[in-house]
């Protein structure tokens, strides 16, 4: 995109300082959803752990599970508060920044979003209150049930949100009609509109991504505590549980992702071409690995400025399901393309991390099999370092999905540029963007601080001496360097 | 069509658009009532310097605020589902107000969360600023947003609506705490509650008088109507009656009549809106509502769930009924 189009043309005096309403709105939505989704997927991924620990705790009265439940419920609660306070701005921004989108798609997205609030969000919020404060006030059975309902709420919430997003990728079940002088989408077939072709792919991929991210987080925290206190029984169990979960979920994600890619080629060929930086229509190679030859390749990845390890024709083979010479539509066929570099590199980043997770899972599985999981300092350190990467993969995966859909907000129907508020000024949009950036950076630091504090308290209660607990400035290596 | 259970070309009942207008306002009312007393707790919190009392306040707030806050999401998404044009114009026209409100909610929600994390006087003070500031600005900005919804860009009525929501939140917050705490603290809270009641009732009268005199947003005629007069009369009755009950120390009864005030305020909003859904644009309920299939669908799937949600709240408040226990309900 030419820089001039990014800047507000309305007020030339301020043009240097303020972004255009469109670009500021997109950056703001992208930024706020990036932060929100970390907490939303924390709830989704942590829910099965919470249910399991709560059930084991109530059922067996085993102190290990009481300890794990108590710790992870606190993490869940802090994450849920963050998820709530960052989620409300999301539901408002459809109106404040993209009112044309809300108006055009209201009949299609309003229902699912309202169901999300009523069927899922309430369920989570109400029963989390019970889970956090009600241990002495309700029966064991109600208490376990509360943990299950919180989990169901989180997974149902993901369902309805993805109904909306999947519809934006592969819209159907509507017709365009003119209402009060405006073209809007009228719902004609709810089943088709809610269960779009993309929906099952997206739901499985996202729920599993959340599980992987949280398994890595649990593994990292457990590894750190085990490293500090090797005989911490509860945390040895948690580490093992996380590794087992990773052994299942990480390879599954790769297999599922491969098939998902073929579906994207079928339904959104432009996005697929951007993922592979495939410009000329024709047979496509599959770039297993790509390295930039020069700095230019970072912003403009294309075959001639990349060093690639490629399988000739395999791109075609995969996209077509068996034909090495199958024609894959290239980006040159389109008038306007998404920012290819962001999509291309995000995709590679996500896939690369996915393979790293499989490696870590297999390594951990082998150590578990040999009964040496807790003894391998190298493995513990690797897991500590890897604990934020699940979220990195999850976010870059979403960048592929969302940036790859550009210039459309509703694929083939409404452009993002047409969805932005016509009354919004660059000044207002830039102001709120800066505000959200500052606020949410503070929020992320707060979340990391809370995690650090919880870990420190846990170590203290395990009898690890303060001096050794505080030897690292942060308990987790990325706290000071990332985000 | 794929689902013969849901009529495609006609509303399930003829008045379904009006019922949805009512349902959207109902969600707003639930929000203003429930999160309103959370805001009140947050603002009254500023009057306490004793650590023990502050923790008592936070214990009353802790288990319920998050669930209460979800009602604003229910309101927003129901408005989007039934009246997408109103949702989009209202928020787009009031960009800074709307986002200012959600940012205030962020501060309000994070304050107590942060406070627990560190035993450091300065840290706790900043966390308290966030909690109190967020609790005051959220109702102010939401009230102003409601004012813009009703009256358009008329500064004085808009500000007065905001201040009115702040005052009514203090009333319900004080009554809620008084009903759940020890007598000494309750009698101090009563003073704030009664003062805020009088300020609120006075504010409503000034607001409506201003609207009539300046015809803000062309709403003068709507204000001079029987339903508005009835709502105002009921507000005065419940406000004064509640204050009398408070003075007698009948705090549970005071709470019941205090909660009538935000309910009546929402009713006032509904009366001033109808038959339009966004007076400054002149959009009528029937013009702005979605097509029959979409509305029927959200009705069939949504209403049973709404009943279930109400049951959850009954359950939640049942679990945490009775006096506040200072150790955070033994969690």
Overview of this protein structure:
- The complex is a heterodimer of chains A (483) and B (331).
- By secondary structure, chain A is mainly alpha-helical.
- Chain A has one domain.
- In chain A, 69% of the residues lie in helices and 6% in strands.
- Chain A has 17 helices and six strands.
- In chain A, the strands form three sheets. In chain A, strands 1-2 form a two-stranded antiparallel ribbon.
- In chain A, β5 and β6 (414-415) form a beta hairpin.
- In chain A, α2 (21-60) packs antiparallel against α3 (63-96).
- Chain B is mainly alpha-helical and 331 residues long.
- Chain B has a single domain, classed as Formate dehydrogenase/DMSO reductase fold (Up-down Bundle), CATH 1.20.1630.
- Chain B contains 13 helices and two strands.
- Chain B has helices at residues 16-45, 51-61, 65-82, 84-93, 95-115, 121-151, 155-180, 183-214, 220-223, 226-247, 251-273, 285-288, 292-319; strands at 276-278, 283-284.
- Chain B has a two-stranded antiparallel sheet.
- The longest helix of chain B has 32 residues, at 183-214.
- Chain B is globular and about 60 Å long.
- Residues 327-331 of chain B have low confidence and may be disordered.
- Chains A and B meet through α3, α4, β2, α6 and α16 of A and α3, α4, α5 and α13 of B.
Walk me through the topology.
The complex is a heterodimer of chains A (483) and B (331).
Chain A: H1 3-6, H2 21-60, H3 63-96, H4 99-133, H5 140-169, E1 174-179, E2 182-187, H6 190-194, H7 198-228, H8 233-267, H9 269-276, E3 286-292, H10 296-299, E4 306-311, H11 314-320, H12 340-369, H13 377-386, H14 389-403, E5 408-410, E6 414-415, H15 416-419, H16 426-461, H17 466-469
Antiparallel strand pairs in A: 1-2, 3-4, 5-6
Helix pairs in contact in A: 2-3, 2-5, 2-7, 2-16, 3-4, 3-8, 3-16, 4-5, 5-7, 7-8, 7-13, 7-14, 8-9, 8-12, 9-12, 12-13, 12-14
Chain B: H1 16-45, H2 51-61, H3 65-82, H4 84-93, H5 95-115, H6 121-151, H7 155-180, H8 183-214, H9 220-223, H10 226-247, H11 251-273, E1 276-278, E2 283-284, H12 285-288, H13 292-319
Antiparallel strand pairs in B: 1-2
Helix pairs in contact in B: 1-2, 1-3, 1-6, 1-7, 1-11, 3-4, 5-6, 6-7, 7-8, 7-11, 8-10, 10-11
């Amino acid at each position: 995109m030419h820089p001039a189009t990014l800047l507000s043309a309305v007020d030339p005096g301020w043009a240097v300082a303020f972004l255009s309403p469109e670009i500021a709105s997109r950056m703001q939505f992208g930024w706020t959803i990036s932060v929100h989704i970390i907490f939303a997927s924390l709830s989704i991924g942590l829910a099965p752990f919470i249910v399991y620990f709560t059930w084991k705790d109530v059922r067996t009265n085993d102190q290990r599970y009481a300890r794990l439940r108590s710790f992870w419920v606190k993490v869940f609660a802090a994450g849920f508060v963050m998820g709530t306070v960052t989620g409300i701005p999301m539901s408002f921004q459809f109106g404040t920044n993209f009112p044309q989108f809300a108006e055009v798609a209201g009949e299609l997205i309003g229902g699912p979003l309202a169901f999300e609030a009523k069927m899922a969000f309430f369920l989570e919020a109400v029963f989390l209150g019970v889970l956090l404060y009600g241990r002495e006030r309700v029966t064991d059975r109600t208490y376990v049930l509360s943990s299950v309902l919180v989990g169901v709420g989180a997974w149902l919430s993901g369902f309805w949100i993805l109904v909306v997003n999947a519809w934006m990728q592969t819209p159907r079940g509507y017709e365009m009609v003119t209402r009060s002088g405006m073209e809007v989408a009228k719902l004609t077939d709810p089943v088709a509109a809610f269960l779009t072709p993309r929906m099952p792919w997206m739901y499985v991929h996202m729920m599993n991504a959340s599980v992987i991210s949280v398994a890595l987080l649990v593994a990292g925290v457990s590894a750190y505590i085990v490293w500090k206190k090797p005989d911490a029984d509860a945390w040895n169990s948690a580490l093992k549980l996380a590794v087992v979960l990773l052994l299942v979920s990480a390879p599954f994600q790769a297999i599922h992702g491969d098939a998902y890619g073929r579906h994207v080629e079928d339904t959104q060929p432009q996005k697929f071409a951007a993922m592979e930086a495939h410009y000329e229509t024709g047979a496509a190679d599959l770039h297993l690995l790509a390295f930039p030859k020069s700095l230019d390749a970072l912003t403009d990845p294309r075959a001639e400025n990349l060093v690639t390890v490629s399988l000739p024709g395999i791109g075609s083979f995969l996209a077509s399901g068996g034909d090495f010479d199958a024609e894959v539509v290239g980006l040159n066929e389109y008038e306007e393309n998404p920012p290819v570099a962001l999509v291309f590199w995000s995709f590679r980043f996500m896939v690369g991390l996915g393979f790293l997770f499989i490696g870590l899972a297999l390594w951990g599985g082998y150590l578990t099999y040999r009964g040496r999981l807790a003894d391998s300092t190298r493995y513990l350190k690797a897991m500590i370092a890897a604990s934020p990467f699940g979220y990195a993969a999850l976010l870059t995966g979403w960048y592929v999905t969302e940036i790859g859909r550009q210039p459309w907000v509703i694929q083939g129907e409404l452009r993002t540029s047409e969805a932005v508020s016509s009354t919004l000024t660059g000044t207002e949009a830039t102001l709120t963007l800066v505000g959200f950036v500052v606020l949410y950076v503070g929020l992320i630091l707060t979340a990391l601080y809370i995690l650090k504090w919880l870990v420190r308290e846990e170590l203290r209660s395990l009898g690890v001496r303060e001096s050794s607990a505080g030897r690292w400035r942060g308990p987790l290596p990325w706290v000071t360097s990332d985000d | 069509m794929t689902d013969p259970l849901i009529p495609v070309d006609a509303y399930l009942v003829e008045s379904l658009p009006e019922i949805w207008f009512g349902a959207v306002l109902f969600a707003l009312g639930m929000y203003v009532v429930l999160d309103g007393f959370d805001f009140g707790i947050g603002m009254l919190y500023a009057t306490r310097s004793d650590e023990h009392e502050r923790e008592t306040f936070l214990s009353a707030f802790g288990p319920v605020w998050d669930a209460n806050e979800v009602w604003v999401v229910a309101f927003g998404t129901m408005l989007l589902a039934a009246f997408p044009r109103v949702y989009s114009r209202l928020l787009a026209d009031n960009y800074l107000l709307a986002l200012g409100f959600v940012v205030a909610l962020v501060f309000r929600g994070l304050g107590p969360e942060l406070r627990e994390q560190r035993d450091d006087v300065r840290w706790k003070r900043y966390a308290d600023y966030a909690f109190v500031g967020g609790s005051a600005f959220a109702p102010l900005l939401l009230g102003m947003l409601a004012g813009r919804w009703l009256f358009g860009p008329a500064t004085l009525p808009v500000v007065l609506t905001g201040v009115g929501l702040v005052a009514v939140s203090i009333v319900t917050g004080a009554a809620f705490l008084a009903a759940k705490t020890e007598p000494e603290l309750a009698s101090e809270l009563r003073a704030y509650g009664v003062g805020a009641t009088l300020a609120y009732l006075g504010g409503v009268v000034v607001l409506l008088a201003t609207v009539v005199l300046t015809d803000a947003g062309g709403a003068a005629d709507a204000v001079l109507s029987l339903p508005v007069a009835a709502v105002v009369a009921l507000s005065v009755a419940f406000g004064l009656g509640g204050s009398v009950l408070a003075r007698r120390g009948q705090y549970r009864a005071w709470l019941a009549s205090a909660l009538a005030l935000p309910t009546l305020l929402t009713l006032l909003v509904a009366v001033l809106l109808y038959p339009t859904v966004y007076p400054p644009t002149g959009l009528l309920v029937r013009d702005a509502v979605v097509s029959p299939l979409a509305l029927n669908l959200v009705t069939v799937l949504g209403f049973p769930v709404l009943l279930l949600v109400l049951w959850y709240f009954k359950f939640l408040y049942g679990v945490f009924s009775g006096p506040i226990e200072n150790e955070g309900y033994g969690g």
